[in-house]
## 1
Amino acid sequence: MRRGALVVFEGCDRSGKSTQCKKLVESMLEKGMKAELMRFPERSTVIGKLIDSYLKNSKDVQDNAIHLLFSANRWELKPEMERKLNEGVTLVVDRYAYSGVAFTAAKEGISLNWCKRPDVGLPLPDLVLFLKVSSEAAEKRGGFGEERYEKSEIQARVAKNFEKLQENDWEIINADQSMEDVQKQIQNVVSNLMNQDLPELGKLWT
Ligand code: FDM
Ligand code: MG
């Protein structure tokens, strides 16, 4: 049986990631394909609950330590991800290790290289869709929420880090377009992927 594809969405706040992830899963299911939505952080696990209270500012955690917890949250879901992929389910993932690196490396005194290390060897995405939104378009979409990191200075540093992490095979989607146009573009890219033979699942940053 053909394995499922690992499709990752990345991008800054208000780029439309969560909306587009849901739309993609819905449209794949409508076409009779097996697809499931995942997100990181996955806040339902024990580690995820800690991360949730950190993001909601109800708990402080040392910067390196919280980085390792975000990474551990991906590792703890690796067996489930591999199982589903092997069952032929395509996983559509809202944020992954790239967010992990981009956000922590936006802090003082933590390098991009240090940030990448704990995630080395995680399942390698078959496709990274980067939703690129201009600061003007993002601002029009309304104010920030209350969570840690939802501040424009932090978001600007995160955006720069995403640029440093960008690889040649990323699909950069102009997320200033209408939701429908973004969706169409994503569907084209994904249907190309689904028509290709997938190699054996790779390992991230190796
Ligand atoms: N975030 C997300 C990190 O700092 N590290 C990570 O590894 C991941 C996956 O958590 F601010 C940050 C990014 C964002 C927050 O917000 C999660 P959403 O709205 O649940 O995606
Ligand atoms: Mg958010």
Note: The CA atoms of residues 77 and 191 lie 26 Å apart.
## 2
Amino acid sequence: MAEPAGANDPVRVRVPAKINLRLSVGAPRADGFHPLDTVYQAISLYDEITIRPADRLRLTLDGVGADTLPTDGGNLAVRAATLLADRLGVPPNVAIHLHKRIPLAGGLAGGSADAAAVLVGCDALWGGGHDPAALAVLAADLGSDVPFLVIGGTARGTGRGELVEPVPAAGPWHWVVAAADGGLSTPRVYGQLDLLRAAGAAPPAALASERDAAASYGDAVGSARDGIAAEATGHTPSPVPDRLLAALRSDDPADLAAALANDLQPASIALRPALRRTLDAGLAAGALAAMVSGSGPSCLCLAADAADAARIAAELTERGVCSAAHVAVGPVAGATVLA
Ligand code: C5P
């Protein structure tokens, strides 16, 4: 934790995007959320947040998509400041500036990242003295992904994604993030998965997690899997397989590539069929695996090394299958106060 800042010093916070290395989704709960068993990883694609004392709570933004985002209580960053101020019994009088680099509504939790950064930054500014685990508990009130972005690294997420527990991981892993024009609504993608499952057009959770996302993205399930399909209820997400945990401890990206999976992928592709082209282009360019990131529409390619990642990013850009291609490494730390 950072020391409390001086009364008028600005606090600068850097916060990463998140990806899901594996996302198993169960049937919706009574509160509408879907139970998850996921493995998150924080990657080196960052928003930067500056927080300074002010006469009232204010939010300004610049960077990617900044002109489309709310600056009032509709922005999770504002809600994060209000929540922590209430908790500490102080007035939420800060001017927050968000410099956005994480693509919006892209399946990378950019809005959740900013909320995590504001929690960490305001806690430093106000001398709250919360450790990351305590802030992560508070963060769960703001959104399912916010606790992970306080903690960062690589972590398993259960519940609706808000219960996070670090997972040992080697790395660095080399990723290419292919951003798309226009976002996808997260509730809409979850709803689409429910519809596909009701129609038998997407595998239930226990089965979906067995798929190798790189090999079978978006495709119907092969007959060899029918026996498992009959047993799977899809009501509970399936636990993280040992194969993924072992791959994370190993240094071989091919092992990790074989263990990546995302139950939301068929739903994202159903809503945005062009994503198939992006994934195909990633594999054709030499990615070890290509997968939709979270609810999409950003796509992820896992590369063998940094040089391959740069080459894949250039090829995706050249082929016009994404709006921008970013190289990133993971895991990296969660929201961090900069010196
Ligand atoms: O938690 P968060 O506010 O980020 O979730 C946004 C929306 O995504 C929820 O309102 C819900 O529709 C959907 N969601 C879900 N199950 C989850 C996480 C999110 O259905 N585990």
Note: Confidence is low (pLDDT under 50) at residues 212-232.
## 3
Amino acid sequence: VNPMPREEGLDHTLSLAREGYLYIPNRRHSFNSDIFETRLLGKKAICMGGTEAAELFYDEEKFMRQGAAPNRALQTLFGAKGVQTLDGPEHKRRKEMFMSLMSRERIEELIHLIRKEWESEVSKWEGMDQVILYKEVQEILCRAACQWAGVPIQENDIKERTKEFGSLFESVAAIGPNHWLGRAARNNVEKWIGELIEEVRNHNLKPLENTALHAFSWHRDLAGNLLDTEVVAVEVVNIIRPIIAISIFINFTALAIHQYPDKKAKIQSSDEKYTEMFVQEVRRFYPFFPFIAAKVKKDFIWKGYKFDVDTLTLLDLYGTNHDPTLWDNPGLFNPERFSKWKGGPFSFIPQGGGDYLTGHRCAGEWITVEVMKAVVDQLINKMEYRVPEQDVSFSLVSMPSIPASKFVINHVKRK
Ligand code: HEM
């Protein structure tokens, strides 16, 4: 057994907050090691990144999710008792419930809804002096996501609900008032969805069969029981919230189209394959989820390093996507790199790695890619716009990172 490279000191939670997306990559670089030990939230913790570390992290014999997510994330981003916190057969059963919604036909229906909403918004944008894309896109996604999930929502409520869903993922790393806004938003949203679930179960509300609201309300666990209303609400929110969060990648997509006109020209002159490569590069290049957390399930030794049961372990997502041993010139925005990319479940992990059905990899990764491809088409082929002077800088510290101006466009015209 060898000692793991170790960051000296009592606690480094503040360094993590100060360095954000770069906290783990900086130390992987300075220790010249894909794995190191530190102290976070008052306890020993392990941080690791790269393909082999990712493969290890997704080994269910060695790591578990129960008890891994910090309470502040459960109170805002994830919700209590959701699929993210489950392990083993219970997780698989719940994950099947999510993946049953991810058929090609269902994804196409969502894309259709988003395109329809987008096109009617363009008419509105034509009459506006300036359009803050982040905000407008969130409303489009909120409308489409609710409809897709079978959740009825009044036009009057769209703005407020969009804000609430947004604050679930905007508040996760916030301190002070914004964090508490996120908690309040979670309570409101779960209460609203919970009431709808009760109506479904009382047969007063009949959402279409293949919607999340229907499927989750009638889902049975391994023991054959319906889930608690609160758990169904958390899981329905686990569909709507992340669809609205695609607004962050959409902002970066618009930024990339603006900043790399040669790539834009190539999208216009190439087939859909290139659009997909462009979208993959947006997901690799720009920051979104910095890392994910698990706990060591039982003592084991890996590459001579000892892992003690219960140790909090973080997998470096951002750093793995920027790992110079996996990616040539990782700091260069270069969609062409995906034409020769060999693939593999553990090296390109903006939405987690491993397997969808048996592991925790993001249930919505296919949706995310398809939505982004549709948006590239809308932005490039279906409308014209200008991008006025603005501060489009984005931080590698604050999480989630969003371009400062939230991307403003003007002189919008339908093509
Ligand atoms: C899990 C990222 C969109 C539903 C995750 C995980 C990440 C992630 C990093 C954790 C993986 C792990 O713990 O191993 C993202 C990003 C998105 C996105 C960056 C872009 C907006 C979506 C969408 C949906 C979705 C659109 C649903 C429609 C889920 C669910 C899980 C998850 C249900 C939990 C899976 C599990 O624990 O088994 N996502 N996601 N996500 N995501 Fe996404």
Note: Residues 83-84, 95, 98, 238-239, 242-243, 245-246, 249, 288-289, 292, 350-352, 360-364, 367-368 surround protoporphyrin IX containing FE (CB under 6 Å).
## 4
Amino acid sequence: MNAGKRIALISVHGDPAIEIGKEEAGGQNVYVRQVGEALARQGWQVDMFTRKTNPTQSSIVQHSPNCRTIRLVAGSETFIPRDQLFEYLPTFVDQLRQFQRDNQIQYSLVHTNYWLSAWVGMELKKHQPLKQIHTYHSLGAIKYQSVSEIPAIAATRLEVEKTCLETADCIVATSPQEQEHMRQFVSSQGKIEIIPCGTDIDRFGSVSSSEARLRLGIPKSSLVVLYVGRFDQRKGIETLVKAIGKSIFPGLADIRLIIVGGSRSGQSDGIERERIEGIVDELGLREFTTFPGQVDHDELPNYYAAANLCVVPSHYEPFGLVAIEAMASGTPVVASDVGGLKFTVADEKTGLLCPPQDEESFKEAIDRILSRPTWQKKLGKAARQRVETMFSWNGVAQQLSDLYESLNEEALEELTLISA
Ligand code: UDP
């Protein structure tokens, strides 16, 4: 193993080894895990650091010979919402450095994820020579435009995000829209490269629609509209449910709305699910709607393939993995015309884009696609092609690997200069 090809991926609150689809476990966890595993296949030695949230969790999870998740104890070993994690970060940094000392490991590269890890990366940089690459996953400056209550941590977050953009060796924006937002709302300084998120094109797209429907017990004649994602008000599930309530199809055809995603009773995702169920009942949609709960990536390809279309009604989405998973499965996407979705979904070619929270517009888009099966198939085919060309994990990991290699060369040159 080339000792120079070693990287630490840091994801304080997004455990890459955890079950996806629950509160605070979503795209970032998938991103870090997939990037880590794909990099390991390309010859990198990958250590992914996260915070331990339960005493029963293993401290080290080996995913493949060169890729592992390392859980550090920082604060109590329980779930702590991300807005309350900042005070535990100095301990996280200490624990990471201790792990390095115990195992005699040096990282010349760290790729940090989300602003909490950005801070960790910047701290590490004070103690050791390393290059920091950062992916935001969400920008405070955008998020705080759409929330009614600004948390106490907001000022710290905005400051960290600005400093990170100005000082990291490279920022990875996952879409041109995210890059624009960084320039517009965060800082005009700093180096940014656009490298999108990816998806497993062998997994998503591996099953035909008829086979998937057989497996899920859905008749061939049903019209299936799918949502996949966390229960969070900003995901806009309400808009989808109301659009289905207005659609011409309930009563005309056997329409089925499937809402996939995990929730825990009494937690914020459980409360949102109850709210959504309340709207479903109010609109008389209960008999058309199912909530299968959290579904893992082995099972999800069946849901995407069985669907006539997948709806991503988020108020904002920095990238939106669900859209490309559906597209890879040959399923058109109706999505909000925001953030990364503007980049992944080609309007009128692989699906349709609608103004966020505009249930009338979502209703029209859903009805247009459901009423034209030939067009639906054409959109689905083009969607699959778009993902194959632009968003496969291996392609994405190759682009990241090239970026790391170039920064690694710089780092090694600098080290040589220092020791000369
Ligand atoms: N997901 C899953 N099972 C579920 C719900 C969601 O595996 O029951 C996955 C989904 O397939 C996707 C991720 O969670 O890979 C959500 O990522 P996205 O970027 O769409 O949204 P985020 O959660 O980051 O806001």
Note: Residues 20-21, 26-28, 30, 228-230, 260-262, 294-297, 300, 319-322, 325 surround uridine-5'-diphosphate (CB under 6 Å).
